[in-house]
Every structure is written in C-alpha cells, then in structure tokens.
Amino acid sequence: MSVVIPVGMGELKVARSPETLAVYGIGSCVIVSLYDTKSKIGGIVHVMLPDSSGIDKERLNPNKFADTAIPALYDAIKAEDGVFKANLHAKIVGGSEMFPPTEDFENNIGRDNAASVKKALKKMGFPLVAEDIGGKRGRSIEFDLESGLIRLSILGEEPRDL
Amino acid sequence: MEDITSLTKIQLDALREVGNIGSGNAASALAQFLNRKIDMAVPSASIMDFKDIPAILGGPGTRVMGIFLKVLGEISGRFLLLIPEDTSIKLLKTLIPGCEIEDPLKMSELESSCMREVGNILAGAFLNALSALAQTPMLNSLPSMTFDMAGSMIDSVVADMTAVSDKVLMIETSFIESEEDLRIHIFLLPEPKSLRILLQKIGVI
C-alpha cells in the first residue's frame, strides 16, 4: 500500500507516484486536481468558496477560494522538477448541496464553487478531463498518482474511477 | 465582534450558559417526546478550528444523520443536529411502532419526516429558551435532513463562515439516555455579525 496523504478543507498538497492523496467527506467544497501524466506528479486543492474578492489580502488563505486556489495549485506543482504545463490535466469533484432546500433557505455554495472553479481552469488553459459535480451526496476520493485515477466513493454506491 | 478569537473567558462562560439553558429545554422536550428520562452532558462553548469539528463525530468519513435549520431573527445563526447512525436507528424504532430500519440511507418518507420532526422539536425548544433569555424572538426555519458523511455536512454548513478566519464559535452539547446510549450532538453556530447582539442581550458586553 502506498503512502496516503490526507488533504483537509482549505489545504493544498502536492505528491508523486507511488503516493496517494485522499480527501474524506467532501460536501459543497470542490476538490481540484492537476496531474502531470509524464512525471506522475500531481496536486490537490480543497476549495471552499467561489470568490475571494472583498477579502483582505493580508489575511487571505488562497487555497480556500476558487479564483486564487487554482493559480496557487499550479505554482506549487510547477515548482517540482519535471512538470510541464502542456502535460497537465484537471479533474474536479464535489460541489454538492448536502441539505435539500426548504422554503426558508437555499444554499448555492456548491453550485457557485463548481462554476467558479471551471471558469478559473478555463482561464488558465487546463483541460478538464473528468468531473463529478453537484447532486445532494457527500463524496470521498483517493487520487492515485501512479495511475492518475481518482477513486470516488459515495455512501451506498459502488466506488468508481474518474 | 467579527473576530471571534477575541472573546473573553467571561463571554465564553456566558455562551456556555446559553448552551446549558437551550439544551436543558431541548432535553426536556425530547424526554417528553420519547417518554424517557434524558440526561445531558455539560455543554461546551468553544472557538474551534473548523477542521477539527468532524473528529467529534469520529472523523470526516463517519456516517451520521444531519438535521440542519437556520436560526432567524435579530440574532441569526445555524443550528445543526448530528446524530450517530446507531442512535438514529434507535430513535426511529422508538418513535415508529413496527419500524425495522437497518440502513438509514434507505429511510422511507415517513421515517425521514419523523426525524425532521425530532429536529424541529429540539431546535424549537432550544431557541425558545434562548429567546426568553435574550428577550428577542428567535425562530427556526423548516428542518432539512440528510444521512451522509460527517465531513461533507460540516463543510457545507460552515464554508461561508470561514472566508476570513478558520475559527468558528460552536456551542455543543449531547444527550445521553442512560439505558440506550442515545447520543445527539447539537451545534449552534451564531453568525459572526449576530454575536455582538447576542453578547449584549445576555449582558456580557
């Protein structure tokens, strides 16, 4: 079994084959992965909110916000030897609405996170090769840096690879 | 008071007392509803890193039932009940005669509606006590319920409270029914902008 490195809310981690990056209990957050298919180096950032505008830059954790997290993830990955932008692809998972809306409230953070992450990936030119986004269920993932596959688990369903 | 890390010990003690009064009333309501004697653990009021909350339930991947309500009024916030899987099954079997549920993922509409009612009763009782204490009406929204991973629920409930700080103020308590070991965790998360008002109303600011 390879080393499994957990990534918590608002965290960013980079790893390489044969390591595995794991995130357990994803709700409205969106997990963004970038993977270099040649060097088998990849990273994950655990985005919580769609937009950092209006937040004091001094106190900003760039990993939390879609618009700042993806540049931060790219910066962290490209610092590794052997990573080239042309070899990178992205996958995204999460953005669910855990609590069904009632007449008193609705919660669109998951949907806004997903839209904002896609916009940021497009702006930076990373191809989005797989996604599992939205719905009402929680998700856990294990990202195997050897194969580049993301094993997705949802309660009550068979795990599958993205 | 946007910065909750500056709360004093006296203010935290007062918030713990808020938890005590609210949970005491909620425990009586639950005891009446179940027709059982319910004990209450001493509530805590603490400033927590949001990343540490799932550990209270046994880790982010733990299967739990979550019932979420918004607190509406001059003092607004979020009210979250997290009920471990075994307790949610025991509650359903106690409340619905003939209920044979084994997997809460497969709850029927009757079972779901019954658990939402539990949430409604507990939140209503908790907030009634708090309204009387703070002398301002606090109402709860209709409850929304799901059964899933603890981490997924917490991330969805606290995400937009953590834009600036990683800390949230949490008033937490749990109920224990001695013979059956029923555990229900109540989390009250005041909106940062409401915290000053709450502290004023309870006379510690």
Keywords:
heterodimer, A: 162 residues, alpha+beta, 60s Ribosomal Protein L30, Chain: A, 5-stranded mixed β-sheet, 2 helices, 10 strands, B: 205 residues, Chemotaxis protein chec, 8-stranded antiparallel β-sheet, 6 helices, 8 strands, globular
Overall morphology of chain A? globular
Termini separation of chain A (Å)?
A: 20 Å
CATH architecture annotation of chain B:
3-Layer(aba) Sandwich
Q: Number of DSSP helices of chain B?
A: 6
Number of strands of chain B: 8
Any idea what the radius of gyration of chain A is? 15 Å
Distance between the termini of chain B: 10 Å
β-strand percent of chain A reads 25-35%
Low-confidence stretches of chain A: none
The oligomeric status of these chains comes to: heterodimer
Please tell me the overall pLDDT of chain B: 86
The CATH top-level class label of chain B: Alpha Beta
Provide the CATH topology of chain B. Chemotaxis protein chec
Describe this structure in words.
The complex is a heterodimer of chains A (162) and B (205). Chain A is of the alpha+beta class and 162 residues long. Helix content of chain A is 18%, strand content 33%. Chain A has a single domain, classed as 60s Ribosomal Protein L30, Chain: A (2-Layer Sandwich), CATH 3.30.1330.200. Chain A has a five-stranded mixed sheet with strand order 1-3-8-9-10, with no helix packed on it. In chain A, strands 2-5-4-6-7 form a five-stranded mixed sheet, covered by helices on one side. In chain A, helix 1 crosses helix 2. The two termini of chain A are 20 Å apart. In chain A, 47% of the residues are buried. Chain B has a single domain, classed as Chemotaxis protein chec (3-Layer(aba) Sandwich), CATH 3.40.1550.10. In chain B, strands 1, 2, 3, 4, 5, 6, 7 and 8 form an eight-stranded antiparallel sheet that branches. The model of chain B has no long low-confidence stretch (mean pLDDT 86). The chains are: A alpha+beta (162), B alpha+beta (205).
